[in-house]
Amino acid sequence: MKEPLDFIYKEQKELSTFGGIAALLGWDQMTYMPPMGASDRSEQTALISRLSHEKVISDKLWKHIENLSKSKNFENLPPKDKAVVTRLKKDVEKARMIPSSFVERMVKTTTLAYPAWQEAREKSNFKIFIPYLEKIVELEKEYCGYINLPGPRYNTLVDDYEEGMTVDKLKKEFKYLKTQIIDILEKIKTSRLFKKQHEIDLKFPIEKQREICNIVIETMLLPKDKSRIDMSTHPFTTSMGYNDVRITTNYERKNPLFSFFSTAHEAGHALYELGVPRDEFKYTVISDSPSLGLHESQSRFWENMICRSKHFWNYFYPIFKRKSPDQLKDLDIDIWYRYVNSVKPSFIRVEADELTYCLHVILRFELENSLIDDKIKVSELPEIWNNKMDEILGIIPKNDKDGVLQDMHWSGGNFGYFPTYAIGSIYSSQLFKKLTDENPSILSNIEKGDFRNIIIWLRENVHKYGRMMTADEIIKNACGEGLNAKVFVNYLKNKYYNLYDI
Amino acid sequence: MKEPLDFIYKEQKELSTFGGIAALLGWDQMTYMPPMGASDRSEQTALISRLSHEKVISDKLWKHIENLSKSKNFENLPPKDKAVVTRLKKDVEKARMIPSSFVERMVKTTTLAYPAWQEAREKSNFKIFIPYLEKIVELEKEYCGYINLPGPRYNTLVDDYEEGMTVDKLKKEFKYLKTQIIDILEKIKTSRLFKKQHEIDLKFPIEKQREICNIVIETMLLPKDKSRIDMSTHPFTTSMGYNDVRITTNYERKNPLFSFFSTAHEAGHALYELGVPRDEFKYTVISDSPSLGLHESQSRFWENMICRSKHFWNYFYPIFKRKSPDQLKDLDIDIWYRYVNSVKPSFIRVEADELTYCLHVILRFELENSLIDDKIKVSELPEIWNNKMDEILGIIPKNDKDGVLQDMHWSGGNFGYFPTYAIGSIYSSQLFKKLTDENPSILSNIEKGDFRNIIIWLRENVHKYGRMMTADEIIKNACGEGLNAKVFVNYLKNKYYNLYDI
Questions:
Q1: Is B276 helix (H, G, I), strand (E, B) or coil?
Q2: Is the predicted pLDDT of residue B253 greater than 80, yes or no?
Q3: Which of B11, B163, B266, B273 is the catalytic position?
Q4: SS3 category, B81
């Protein structure tokens, strides 16, 4: 009993150490690496990933896991040990179902597909990307065959990012969400205030944006000795270690609110990572988040529920103004709050407003599901994309760059990832409702820029479980029910009817 | 024949990839890592170092090397393959002589000794460091026992950093160098110009220092797509890959010339790393430098021979002035050149002037040799240190912090490292003499800030060999003779007699 458990913990520690190294290799590549370093970096990343994979699928580890979980004394293990072994067993079992030759083919294909996608996007020519994407879709289907979860094929891919989630559940929630958002959007579009919506051409020097982002992470109590913020093309959060969680942003986009909101978003991810009980769960499979959707709920919580709220801007607008150019000097907070939340159907997901964001995600969910289910062909994607954009947002992208080619996910073979963005949005509204129902004083805390109680509540209700439970179990435990788009829709209605005087 | 060679190259590639990963882990720790990341970082570094060590000492690799180098066809291999196998054999043979338990004891001891040294230095209390240093000296002697090169015990330690170098050779060169430098120093001290030496209290904002350092590396043609400069407490150069060589400097010391000269110094190291024929030697043991002394010859070459020369300042002073505060506005270039090269006996090695620098190094060489040879005891070090400082520089440090505790090398078990600093200084003068003898137009190139011909010459005469030859062979090949302190002394006499009008 002692020996296999020791071995399992030893192996997990090494896997976790490999994970930290891989995170550093990736972070450096996106932030500071000189361009010519890319070739050696890919060798380094491939080596760590191979060593890590060999460890996960090793027969010795599997034998120990099997013996331990079948042994009579398994039930007498402390809950943490039991959870660790159970989780690990599931992960290892899945990894062992995939032939190594498949993993290699997938890596090779995506390694070539990424630059092809870049070129296609640059030239706004989907045709360049078609043969690569076709291969990837075939590989995704092959992958589903190895794991073979019940129900539609796409279930297997969704489950990889959101354990226990199914296409049927998502279809139901997303259908409702889509109809409701389109309905709200229609009401907004015909509103008096939509027509006289304020446009501000904000011009912030990068240095000022940087100062504001530093204030944001300080206000959000991200510990300086365990975190830092750097710049990359696309913002992200990554953990090099249990006490080293870094975020990035981008100060170079036209709109300075991009760096502001992406910093709040990534800081939300980082607070979650740092909120998992480090000493207890360290170096085990349960020190992670159980799902990407739950992770996204934390980032969306801070980005939307907090940082796009009126209460927040009552506190933060004077600070923001102080760092801003003269244009904001005489601008009233009400106009500013409306501006920050202005709804405007647009082509690019990552630049979408809070209301229409999920429509972008649902579009991708529908396309992925149809592709994996052989209902549509890769070559048909641009046309279907544009039709769907017209249907949901009433706009059609002028080219594929601003349409079907905008996201990198498919080039990396990350099918099943997109839905987690909408799941996170829904979860975040459920958590916010529960938090404020239980603690009405939270709203005045936000007005004072005091987020301690919020962080304590999130730790207590989400972070502290790590991967001891699934996302569904954690949300049910915290909010009394699982994924429920109604809560999100109510939140949206309240907010936007008020904003647009509907 | 084919198979063992393929295996040997495959293993070297992985070792080299581990090396790049370890370099990134170290670089990040010294530049950007949040303080609390240290504990996980040490796990990551230890894991990579263990995997790397296991690979080096594996029986399979050794068997292949032995079989190949004993086989009849070995002599018919292309020169590069032969060099690779011969070098690797030497490295692996040495590594296999050291018991793994010894490596573990050494790591444990130095891991504890480093913070002990830091504390001792902070409190300026050598006693705190004594037990740790005693243990390290014992381990160094034990190490010498395993390798057991002929002659004095210290030979083994010197050879680790400077293959083929011996205590006897160093004693001879260093004795001469020491006497001569002390003699030059005495002459300077009694000179008219020494007494009216200019003191300038330069105050540069960090931003201006950064701009100057960026100009330095641009002028030195360090390629931007393969390199970058960041900030760390102690300046260093490190290679994450064959096309990713980074340097650091420190802008926070009182003297802005510190960041200037350390940048030139580290850029010299980086040019060397990038100058080894990448495509040919990539991922093999011969892509390295053969010795630390030769590496240091490249950094000292740029720092001293070039960037402390009158020709260089004729070009660079106007640029430097433009970035500097008003104090330099009316300062004549001759006074500036004297100031940049002013001789002033001081306590701290890394802040020493070009003339007295080697005295600091020779002091450490003498102490290390005596310690390893059981001639003196660790507890006697402060007293002997201070006596020697009085003897060579005529000054005695007021405390151990500015004396025996100033360098971190001993806490890391790096005995035998110090001499390479003086070897590098000597080599750099030999290379500079040869270069300018062969190409008198180089001096006017320097005056124009055009360093292309210098870099080409260094590539052709030093860089291109990688580790195909020893440092001694490369210097003999380039300069017609091996290590010769006389050339350095002549250079110093020429320079300083002129500067001090002696």
A1: coil
A2: no
A3: B266
A4: helix
No. of helices (H) and no. of strands (E), chain A: 22, 3
Two tokens, residue A337: 């709050």
Catalytic site residue from A266, A296, A303, A354: A266
Verify whether the Cβ–Cβ distance A21 to B20 is below 8 Å. no
Q: Do A210 and A91 reside in the same domain of the chain?
A: no
pLDDT band for position B2 (50/70/90)? Answer: low
Tokens at A401, concatenated:
């760059």
Cβ of B240 within 8 Å of Cβ of A40? The answer is yes
Taking all residues of chain A, what is their mean pLDDT, rounded to a whole number?
95
The C-alpha of A265 sits at a distance from chain B's nearest C-alpha, in angstroms, of 20
The order of strands in the sheet holding B227-231 is B227-231, B244-249, B237-241
> What is the pLDDT at residue A3?
83
Give the residue-averaged pLDDT of B16-31: 96
Q: Cβ separation of B25 and A28 shorter than 8 Å?
A: no
Domain boundary among the residues A72, A97, A122 is at A97
Q: Do B39 and A228 touch (CB under 8 A)?
A: no
**How far apart are the C-alpha atoms of B150 and A53, rounded to whole Å?**
47
Work out the minimum CA distance from B41 to partner chain A, whole angstroms: 7
Chain A residues with CB-CB distance to B under 8 A?
13-14, 17-18, 20-21, 24-25, 28, 32-37, 39-41, 43-44, 47-48, 51, 223-228, 230, 240-244, 246
Question: Cβ of A226 and B20 within 8 Å?
Answer: no
CA A30 vs. chain centroid, Å, equals: 18
Number of domains comprising chain A: 2
Single residue among A76, A97, A118 that ends a domain in this structure = A97
Distance CA A86, CA A67 (A): 12
What is the 3-class SS of A440-477, one letter each residue?
A: CCHHHHHHCCCCHHHHHHHHHHCHHHCCCCCHHHHHHH
- What pLDDT is recorded for position B252? 77
Whether the CB-CB separation of A5 and A46 falls below 8 Å is answered with no
Query: Which residues in A lie closer than 8 A to residue B47 (C-beta atoms)?
Result: 14, 17-18, 21
* Structural domain range at position B49: 2-97
Gap from B228 CA to chain A (nearest CA, Å): 7
Across the interface, do A225 and B40 touch by the CB < 8 Å criterion?
A: no
Q: What value does the mean pLDDT take over residues B342-356?
A: 95
pLDDT at A32: 97
Q: Considering the domain boundaries, does residue B24 fall inside one? A: yes
What is the model's pTM? 0.95
Report residue A148: phi and psi, to 5°. Answer: 55, 55
Q: Answer whether residue A20 is part of any domain.
A: yes
Domain membership of residue A122 (yes or no) is no
C-alpha distance from B401 to closest chain A C-alpha (Å): 28
pLDDT band for position A2 (cuts 50, 70, 90): low
- Nearest by Cα to A290 from A167, A481, A473, A457: A473
Whether residue B329 has pLDDT greater than 90: no
B179, two tokens: 């006497």
Asked if residue B398 is part of any domain, the answer here is no
Pair type for strands B237-241 and B244-249: antiparallel
Angle subtended at Cα A121 by Cα A251 and Cα A133, rounded to the nearest 5 degrees:
125
Average pLDDT on B334-363 reads: 96
Which of B9, B36, B51, B238 would best serve as a mutation to test chain A binding (most A beta carbons within 10 A)? B36
Beta pairing partners, B231: B249
ipTM score assigned to the predicted complex:
0.94
- For the stretch A207-256, pLDDT in tens is 999 999 999 999 999 999 999 999 998 999 999 999 999 999 999 777 88
Does A351 participate in catalysis according to the annotation? no
Residues of A in contact with B244 (CB under 8 A): 33-34, 36-37, 40-41
Please, what's the b/e burial string for A452-470 (b: 16 or more CB within 10 A of its CB; e: otherwise)? eebbebbbebbbebbbbbb
